[in-house]
Design a protein that fits this description.
The protein has one domain: 3-Layer(aba) Sandwich (UDP-N-acetylmuramoyl-L-alanine:D-glutamate ligase), CATH 3.40.1190. The protein is 36% helix and 24% strand. Helix 1 packs across helix 8, helix 6 packs across helix 7 and helix 9 crosses helix 10.
C-alpha cells in the first residue's frame, strides 16, 4: 500500500435541502433543490484522503440496503480500499438530513444507524489496514470504544494517530495518551478546554494548550484560517484562501484528511497546514459532501496561486 492513511469512522447518506436561508425555530422554508449523496465524516475523509493522493483504507459499517450499496460503490470508485467495511444485515445505513442556506451555512441532523454499531472487534479484524499505513485518522461519529481500539492498534504499528473531535463528545480519562494529533474547530476547542475560543488569538492559546495535552494540535477558524502547534513550540497561523463559499458541508473533513495526508508524506507543519486550508477552500466552493471533495491537482494549484 505504501505511504497511506487508514480512516476509521462513519458512513451514511446525506439528504441535503438547499434553501434561500436557514429556518428559524418553528418556521418552514421552501428549498429549491434536493441532493442525495454519500457522506458521513469517515467516508468523507476516506474519499478526500484518496483524492489527495494517499492510498487509503476505510474501517466502517454500512447496512445491507440500497444506501449501503451506494456508499460502497462510491468509495470504490474513489479508489478507497473497502475490504474492512462490514455489511450489517440487521441495522440500516445511517442518514444525515442537511439544510444549507444561501451563504453556505448549514444545520445537520443525523440518524446514526450502522455508525452506532462499529465495534472494537471490527477494528481489530482490520489490522491489515493499519499495517500498510503511516497515519490512522478517526472522528467521533462512531462509538468511542471503536476509536480507542483504532488508536491502540495504530500505536502498535507505530502510526501517527489523528483525532478529529467532530462531533464533540467528552473524552474518557486516559484517551489523550492514545492521540498524537488533535484537530478541532473553535467550538470543539472551547469544549475540550472549557474556555471560550473565538478568533485567532484565542485559537493560538487553545492550540498551545491542546498541544501540551495531545502532542500536536490544530484549531480551525473557518474563513479566518487555522492555527497549529506542537508541544513545547509556538503556534503557526495560516490565513484562509479567499474563495466564493457555496457549501461548507465536509469542509472540516477535507481539512482533516489533507492534514493526515500531509503527515503521511512527511510535510513540515506549516506546509501541511497550508495544504489543509487549501483543501477546505476548494471544498467550500462546491456543493455536496463527497461530490465536492477536492483532488490533489486542485489543491496544489490553489496553493501555488498565492505563493
Amino acid at each position: 500500500m505504501g505511504v497511506g492513511v487508514a480512516v476509521v469512522g462513519s458512513a451514511h447518506v446525506d439528504y441535503t435541502v438547499y434553501l434561500p436561508r436557514l429556518p428559524r425555530r418553528g418556521e418552514t422554508v421552501i428549498g429549491d433543490r434536493l441532493g442525495v449523496s454519500p457522506g458521513g465524516k469517515g467516508a468523507n475523509q476516506a474519499v478526500a484522503s484518496s483524492r489527495l493522493g494517499a492510498p487509503t483504507a476505510f474501517v466502517s459499517r454500512v447496512g445491507s440496503d440500497s444506501n449501503g450499496e451506494m456508499l460502497l460503490r462510491v468509495l470504490r470508485e474513489n479508489m478507497v480500499d473497502t475490504r474492512y467495511v462490514v455489511v450489517d444485515d440487521e441495522t440500516p445505513t445511517g442518514v444525515a438530513v442537511i439544510m444549507v442556506g444561501e451563504g453556505g451555512e448549514n444545520i445537520i441532523a443525523v440518524y446514526r444507524g450502522t455508525d452506532a454499531k462499529l465495534t472494537p472487534g471490527d477494528v481489530d479484524r482490520a489490522r491489515d489496514a493499519f499495517s500498510d499505513a503511516e497515519v490512522v485518522l478517526a472522528q467521533l461519529e462512531v462509538p468511542l470504544d471503536a476509536v480507542e481500539e483504532a488508536f491502540r492498534v495504530g500505536g502498535e504499528y507505530g502510526l501517527v494517530r489523528v483525532l478529529n473531535t467532530a462531533p464533540y463528545r467528552p473524552l474518557p480519562p486516559g484517551f489523550e495518551e492514545l492521540v498524537d494529533v488533535v484537530i478541532a474547530n473553535e467550538v470543539e476547542a472551547s469544549q475540550l478546554l472549557g474556555v471560550k475560543v473565538e478568533g485567532r488569538e484565542d485559537a493560538e492559546r487553545a492550540a498551545k494548550a491542546l498541544a501540551e495535552r495531545f502532542g500536536e494540535a490544530v484549531v480551525t477558524l473557518g474563513s479566518r484560517g487555522a492555527v497549529a502547534c506542537r508541544r513545547g513550540a509556538g503556534p503557526v497561523y495560516v490565513p484562509a484562501y479567499r474563495v466564493r463559499v457555496v457549501d461548507t458541508v465536509a469542509a472540516g473533513d477535507a481539512f482533516a484528511a489533507a492534514y493526515a495526508v500531509g503527515l503521511a508524506e512527511g510535510m513540515e507543519l506549516e506546509e501541511r497546514l497550508r495544504f489543509s486550508a487549501a483543501a477546505a477552500a476548494v471544498k467550500v466552493g462546491r456543493k455536496g459532501a463527497i461530490t465536492g471533495l477536492p483532488r490533489r491537482s486542485e489543491v496544489e494549484a490553489l496553493v501555488r496561486s498565492v505563493e
